[in-house]
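Quick one, T. Sequence first:
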Amino acid sequence: MTSAHVYGIMNTCYALWLDVRKPLDLDLVKRATKIMYRKMPHVQLGVGRHLGALWWRKMASPALDVDELTTDDVMAAFEELLRHRYSLEGPLWFLRLVTPEGKSVLDETAGHSHKYVCIFGFHHSVSDGTTNMQFCKVFVQVLDDLLQGRDVDMCSEGRFAEPFHDILADAATSHLSLLSLFLSRFYKGILSYGAYVRNFTRLFPMPTHKVAETHILHYELEETTSKKLYLRCKMEGVTLNSAFTAAANLALYLLMSARGHSLKATQINCVQVVNMRRYWPKPLQPNTFGCNISILDLDFQTEEKNLEEFWEYSRLVHSNISHHLTVTQRALTVQPISERLKLVIGSNFWLSRLGLPSTNNHHYCLTNMGDLRTAFPGTGDEVQVSKVLRSVSCHFMPTLCQHTLQTFRGRLCYSLDYYTQKMTRETASQYAEEILRVLTSSIHAPN
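Structure tokens:
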């Protein structure tokens, strides 16, 4: 993550749309961020060197990066902040309070009159989705206390954890297996020069003339539709994550078959982000901050007949994911090789600079925070969160795009992060809308 930042990627941003009973000012928000610095151990860190190696170092004083933006185009501001560059000495996070250019409008139904958006940025080396949702949860609590004039609980919320999965992974792998895996990844990621996604890029050529950036398309399913989809997944014995993966594969196949009419079957390659705390001893899991993730790479044979057998195909997808999460524990065994991704990232950076196509070994990445009901309820007496958006700049990673999922207030929230030098906005929009069409039409499909 630290080396990826040199190339301008792996910046994580979160946006919270706030309905607030009282006006917010920047001074109050700065007070809240100072409290967050004291309560959240991971935001107290910078990166230093000791004997030539990178080490975490606690900052000598609470350096903060807080500012105010006035705009009605939140998405443009969000995408711009995805390009934020940090000083590795810290702080490795920032906050922007976004206020609308016009006057705030009274929302009679919610009973809140003032609307703001808080955009947070986190250097990915110091945080992951679990850490960030906990941060957002505590921030809303602190802001709510300050608005009501209540005393704020100043105790630390948890600990910056040692990545225990690294120890488990080292014990579970041999030097020979790691060498074999590295050579395989090096071939797929660099030497094959995108052969593993050429079924798509041959039909949808990468727009290499575009500046490499991460852009976002955001969607939400309304609560009734979301609930019906969850119930159908439960009835079919699959997770929503598995059903979405199936829909993402089929939508990609539909896009390809619409241009390549002879395409009867193809292989879809994806990676799924895994919270590695799942492999830790249970007593070590709660209230742990830091970047504790890895990726699970999966291949799915996808055929024309799967279009008529969505739930059967979803069960195959679910079985594949479950097998590698729990039986082979593949995300754990590939962990020691993950830092070598910087070879692919560096290659794609320079290919982009030269105006050449990127090299990719997977079609997409999927990251899913699940139902945020417990992790981030987003409610307070003075502050209510109406919408959540999260994204990571990954345009030099070896995938064409990233799907980001979470459920907030009973609504399925879905974002497609697409990379401008790999996919046009038109293709990205077509892909995202096709996924949602496949998902929603599956609710009443025969099993």
